[in-house]
Amino acid sequence: MIFKLEDVTVYFPYDNIYPEQYSYMLELKRALDAKGHCLLEMPTGTGKTIALLSLITSYVLSKPENPVKLIYCTRTVHEMEKTLAELKLLHNYQTRHLGPAAKILAIGLSSRKNLCVNSRVLAAENRDSVDAACRKRTASWVRALAAENPNIETCEFFENYEKAASAAVLPPGVYTLQDLRAFGKQQGWCPYFLARHMVQFANVVVYSYQYLLDPKVAGIISKEMQKESVVVFDEAHNIDNVCIEALSVSVRRQTLEGATRNLSRINQEIERFKATDAGRLRAEYNRLVEGLALRGNLPIADAWLSNPALPSDILKEAVPGNIRRAEHFLHVLRRLVQYLRGRLETENVEKEGPVSFVASITAHAGIDQKTLRFCYERLHSLMLTLEITDTDEFLHIQTICDFATLVGTYTRGFSIIIEPFDERMPHIPDPVLQLSCHDASLAVKPVFDRFQSVVITSGTLSPIDLYPRLLNFHPVVSRSFKMSLTRDCICPMVLTRGSDQLPVSTKFDMRSDPGVARNYGKLLVEMVSIVPDGIVCFFVSYSYMDEIIATWNDSGILKEIMQHKLVFIETQDVVETTLALDNYRKACDCGRGAVFFSVARILLARLEYLRDTFQIKEGDFLTFDALRQAAQCVGRVIRSKADYGMMIFADKRYSRHDKRSKLPGWILSHLRDAHLNLSTDMALHIAREFLRKMAQPYDKAGSIGRKTLLSQADLEKMTNDGSINEMLY
Amino acid sequence: EDEDDNLGLEAWERSYADDRSWEALQEDESGFLRPIDNSAFYHAQYRRRLRTTARIQKGLIRYLYIVIDLSRAAAEMDFRPSRMAVVAKQVEAFVREFFDQNPLSQIGLVTVKDGVANCLTDLGGSPESHIKALMGKLGCSGDSSLQNALDLVQGLLSQIPSYGHREVLILYSALSTCDPGDIMETIQKCKESKIRCSVIGLSAEMFICKHLCQDTGGSYSVALDESHFKELIMEHAPPPPAIAEFAIANLIKMGFPQRAGEGSISICSCHKEVKVGVGYTCPRCKARVCELPTDCRICGLQLVSSPHLARSYHHLFPIAPFDEVTPLLNDPRNRSRSTCFGCQQSLLSSGNKPGLYVACPKCKKHFCLECDIYIHESLHNCPGCESL
């Protein structure tokens, strides 16, 4: 359908539109007009992505005088592919109606692992080794050597791409990763480098958050983006965590051991170069005297996305004299690793700010702040000089340098936490030194500063006023939309009492009460017997989960649950959890049924900082984070309007208004008063009824009273008689 | 102490707690309590059904296996007295209705218990033998296994002749399935052998069942209560649309056996017993069988009687669905016609307000909703058109 939205003609590839999509587009359009940032919450399953894409592309088509580039960030490759597939549909529709004028170039950009077409490179198992395998074949010095010695392996796709030079371009169109690979195979060009090259010309770029937020990657990929871009962060409810993760580093004993190995490798290389090609090292030294910026790959004049890990002055400054020479730099790193090893030998949990930590490094290892700050760039330069291609081997030393640079650069917003063991296994020493970032706005600040409009959108952004404070920006539009439903497909309940009428809560003083654990167990046992397929059960922390599972195991509750469903438990190990999740999904799909025990975790160390810096009360943030977790779990449930799900908030604290009101509006609107203060047996009855009701066939378009699908004619009529505003507000 | 234990309730208490009779009431505008008026709703449901089945090729020769889940979940008491008893009762009614509507078809029963599927009765055309076998075997325990049931049925159905329609109707109480292997493969196998699988759930929607039904072209529904369950199961009685691959014209060899004379004594080939009187003689091999329709045990010929064929005929030529009419009160022509042509009842509902009624598109006669359902589902002839 085609309709007018104020002065923009919107091309929407479907015959019908949801009313909330319409209002979403309207708000988005106003934000674009104002050239400001915006924050939009709309429940999952309402077609956010297509509304967004079709508005922005239509906006560009309507205003050809100022072309806006769309940078669309997704969290996973899967989401990226889905977005591009939708864009393709939209693009086909637009070209059908507008002809070749609507042609755009849209590409997805991902790591080599997802784009490479060279079968020998792809044989490597993980991302880092694919990267390394690629570099081994494409690095300039390797290719130079290969020109003389045909036995050295290169990548024919890359060679062809280089040969084609400026002729290597993508014709306009929408390219998913799959299409890029197919195109690359067909032309014999490397799709990865082609995509990276085309990013600056493309009208739409879809890639992962990291390409904008992680300072290490952003520097390489996103530097050429123009200011007149719209940046969209989709599924951005966790954006603050992504930002924090991008700037957090954790160092374990293995890291230090690996780093030591790396250092001796580098040392050998230096010795080798000294013997064969001493000139290179000298040339590097001279370059470093002149400052990092002149090194060639960080153009100084371009005030683009300034690297947050490296304040702008670092680019102009000369590298400190004590690490200019490769051997000296190695010594510094050795001392640093030695020092960190010493710190890991601690018996108790230690917490320190960056300032005192740096002071202590200076005192014990004799490395000053400025030196630390340059570590990352210096290492990078050294590895280039030494022509090291198997970068995946050098991850450990890179981690250490990353750590050093961050500690040296920031005095606020970080803390260093040393834990001698995992809190769940106090007998097994597994020391870890974490540099954890508390300030999500650090990583995201350059993005807000640089781009004209940044759109943050997700199914759950409540409370919506907290995000601007967390990320430290000023949105021109921030709104939360409700879903118009043909039926009540979500059923939230607040359960406050067990079947014995005693209150249940995970409040700290009630947690260890055996009665509470028993009541929770009873609830779960009953639920698994009436809910089909999958249940996800969230706990407040790992330790609480372990404790309760142990209790359930002793009292036989776990066994009862297993009669109905398989039990999967989330652990802190990522691989294990992925495996568990995978099997959980499988068990749900094949009808066996499964329960997944998961943790909605909360970072305590961040609280203090947030209070000091952004005037966000600890209590507020805690509730926010916990409820955000809860809301997201539910968001998982609903992927489209045909889906349905139940959510049980089993804690008496949810019956309090101040806690409950933090839930997203679309959940609250379904929370009926009768469902606010339930005991286990009442909840069971409601659940049974609900599941039966939802299994009935239903009418998609909605009845006359509650119109949830608008056709073009409907929309025109409503715009003309002004009732559209009624619907929106 | 055992207050949440249903068994601890007194009998009179239980009848209130279970029936929830107050839920069947609603308040009207003036505050009076009335039973909920569902007739319009049911009528809409019925029309939906009608529209989908109008004038298409039908599979009249059906081979249907009914899979009854007798796992632990079938003992649950949310249907009274238990899911198992309700299922058994409705299966009995269904089997009779099925043979009434599909005289050329055959049914077999399979039960699932303790994770194992058992064939209770082989395919056959006699309602009594199935019902007897089922009633003797009630009792539930253990887990349920969808895959085992499908594997068993698939094995049994793959032997039947290609002109027959292979169907499975699964009455599923459980909410999970404990399978020995990959159920997706089994579903694929069912799809390949063109078995139409339908499921009626008794508690909630399961993803795998939905997937199974979608893949094999069956229907999936979940029962709200006993009457709804009855409705759902009865929807499977009329023959389904024919699968495209089978829709080619095909000649089937059939025998029309003679009924044996009164008082003749012979040994029947089906029970191997001496029978007096009743019985039919196969026209090809002269073997004696007790009931029709069936396959001859000796020569394998399909034996039917002509009324069986005649009774299947109307499925092929259903009468067109009637149009809904919303009457104008002041229309004088309407006044003369304000009775139903079928039952002669007034079409004006209480308070002289005209209710909803329908008209035959051919003869333009008016009918009330009850006659509409009766004509389409039982009579299969329009009295208006016949009397022209």
TrEMBL record, chain A:
Keywords: ATP-binding, Helicase, Hydrolase, Nucleotide-binding
Organism superkingdom: Eukaryota
Annotated protein name in UniProt: General transcription and DNA repair factor IIH helicase subunit XPD
Organism: Citrus sinensis
UniProtKB/TrEMBL annotation, chain B:
Zinc finger (C4-type): 282-299
Domain VWFA: 63-203
Keywords assigned: DNA damage, DNA repair, Metal-binding, Nucleus, Transcription, Transcription regulation, Zinc, Zinc-finger
Molecular-function annotations in GO: zinc ion binding
InterPro entries: C1-like_sf, Ssl1-like, TFIIH_C1-like_dom, TFIIH_SSL1/p44, VWF_A, vWFA_dom_sf, Znf_C2H2_type, Znf_RING/FYVE/PHD
PROSITE patterns the record matches: VWFA, ZINC_FINGER_C2H2_1
One Pfam entry name: Ssl1
This protein's record includes keyword Nucleus: yes
Example of a GO biological process term: DNA-templated transcription
Protein's cellular compartments: Nucleus
GO cellular component: transcription factor TFIIH core complex
Family membership noted in the UniProt record: Belongs to the GTF2H2 family.
UniProt-listed PANTHER family: GENERAL TRANSCRIPTION FACTOR IIH SUBUNIT 2, GENERAL TRANSCRIPTION FACTOR IIH SUBUNIT 2-RELATED
NCBIfam families, sorted: ssl1
Protein name per the record: General transcription factor IIH subunit 2
Organism: Citrus sinensis (Sweet orange)
